[in-house]
Amino acid sequence: MEDNDIRLLLEASSRMIDEVSLDFRRYLCPFVDWRDRLICIKGPKGCGKTTLILQHIKETFGANGDKAVYLALDHIWFSSHDVLEAVEWLYAHGCTHLFLDEIHHAEHWARLVKTICDFYPKLNVVYSGSSVLQLTAAQADLSRRQAVYNLEGLSFREFLMFEEGLDFSSVPMDSLLSSHRSLALEITRKRKILPLFTEYLRRGYYPFGKEAKAQFSERLVSVVNTVLDVDFPKVMDVSAATVRKTKKLLMILAANCPQTPNMSELYAQLETDRNAGIKMFDVLEKAELVVSAALDGKKSKLKRLGVSEKLFLGDTNLMYALVAQPDIGAVRETFFANQMRAAGLTFTLHPQGDFMVSGKWLFEIGGAGKGFRQIKDIPNSYVVNDGVELGLASKIPLWLFGFLY
């Protein structure tokens, strides 16, 4: 390959690295060990994976573009060139760190990554992609040789920094529970927090909400359509009819989550059978469009049917994008479940409260007037109140759980 053939690609790489801002850094940055030879960074489209990678290159390698090169595999250049052509040229010209973005656009991408690692032993490779389904499906092939990181959407804490420039540290759960009032006082002294929390619930989980406020819901629906129309058929052998039914299932769940579904009624409504239904639930959960929770310590028959005791949408932004007027109680529970999952905390359902977190803290979620009647006399139990700036004793504001990561 002639030098001029790759010039366009290298110029695009240099321009993107040069123009990326270092002002706002995602929570995942300090946790990635960039020394690993093969790194996978996955997460939903629009969560900031590309920005995270470009920031690392700019901060670590600066203007030394020969050593570290960023390639977006959805670039038109690859419509007439093979990826390995570019890798061979870069390796021969001194590249030591290769960053492959939108990896799922490459045909047989898992085989491509393996080939690069096998035949270019001195090359460090980082790859990422927006197709969580495709990356998850091929993960087993590379599992023994790669470090995998999942980039979640913005926490409420990150949203405040990204949109308002308010810089606060994340808080581990035990510190939040013991010091929530002083933490909330420190934060609310700087800004009225409740209107910002309402905004976050509607469009704050995805960074593109900042630039696409008026069209945010349409853009998020477009992301969902890409997952189901494009990624789903590539990962599983499914018909167009199954894709349509999966979309219908998502809309049914969006209108009724959180819920414990009646499987027989649901399959009848979708005009499908159990096996196809399990496949639909599986893809929605792997794509993080739906999150499931089981009753604490219970293995229910619903688990054998492919779902758990209760289903939630993946995040509150999805609720507002798919439902005209989501139930506020459902929004509160969805926010709490989403932030627990994103912070890496396990949670289950509880017969008296809403969530048992990490097997030791019981939470009951509600509005400003919610009390302890349902969970009284249970050790380590807390009421989580929406619509309040400050808590007291074992009553904690809902918005503060957006500071866990």
How much helical structure, as a percent, in the residues? 40-55%
Tell me the number of helical segments per DSSP (H or I, 4 or more residues long): 16
Any low-confidence stretches, pLDDT <50, length ≥5?
none
**What is the 3D form?**
globular
Radius of gyration: 23 Å
Distance separating the two termini: 46 Å
Quick one: how many beta strands? Answer: 12
Helix/strand/pairing category = alpha/beta
Helix and strand pattern: HEHEHEHEHHEHHHHHHHEHEHHEEEEE
The spatial strand order of the largest sheet comes to 2-3-4-1-5
Question: What does the average pLDDT come to?
Answer: 91
Instruction: Give the tally of structural domains.
Output: 2
Characterize the largest beta sheet: strand count, sense, and whether it forms a barrel.
5 strands, parallel
**Chain oligomer state:** single chain
Strand content: 5-15%
Folded structure, characterized:
The structure is a single chain. This protein has 405 residues and is α/β, with parallel strands linked by helices. It folds into two domains: 3-150, P-loop containing nucleotide triphosphate hydrolases (Rossmann fold, 3-Layer(aba) Sandwich), CATH 3.40.50; 173-403, no CATH class. Helix content is 45%, strand content 13%. It has 16 helices and twelve strands. Helix 3 links the parallel strand 2 and strand 3. The protein is globular and about 75 Å long. The N and C termini lie far apart (46 Å). The mean pLDDT is 91.
